[in-house]
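Narrative of activities, Objective 1.

The group set out to show that a structural description can be obtained from nothing but a protein's sequence at a throughput compatible with the screening campaign. Below is one input-output pair from the validation batch, recorded exactly as produced.
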Amino acid sequence: RLGRLLGKLIGHNGTIAEICFAPDGTQLVSMDHDGQMIVWNLANQEPIVKSHLHNGSISGLITRLDGNISAWSENTIWTFNVEDANLHQTTYITSGKILAVSPAGDLVAAYSPYRVSLYDISTGQLLRTLPEEAEDPWVEYYWEGQILRQFYGAVFGPDGKRLVTLG
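Output recorded for this entry:
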């Protein structure tokens, strides 16, 4: 049973940039590099909503517990309504690279030199900076300059109360 194809979702013209499942597992959201977002019904493998409201690169995508969709790039988060994929809110984080958005849709984890900070997704205001710093990695001489002291990614736990960082 493992590795068996369950279905093929056809509808994007561009290369897929990000995908995520709804918390209940009934839907999938996909966004391509051309900015088209599709919300899929997994039971019948058909699109529920197709939208082309976004332009630019996407570095993350999450279906939130409230049913909305958040997508982000370097320092901007866009929140879309899942029923019609209309843009609901845009939030800017001016002092860091966005790593993750919480499933509850209330927190943003962003990286700024050596640390991760938590921001309010509604206002973009800094809530707190976590005390841990990225470690200075030891690397073989031929990797020097390619592996840097920083956090490369993060993910919130399903309830949004824990944050795991990669750095």
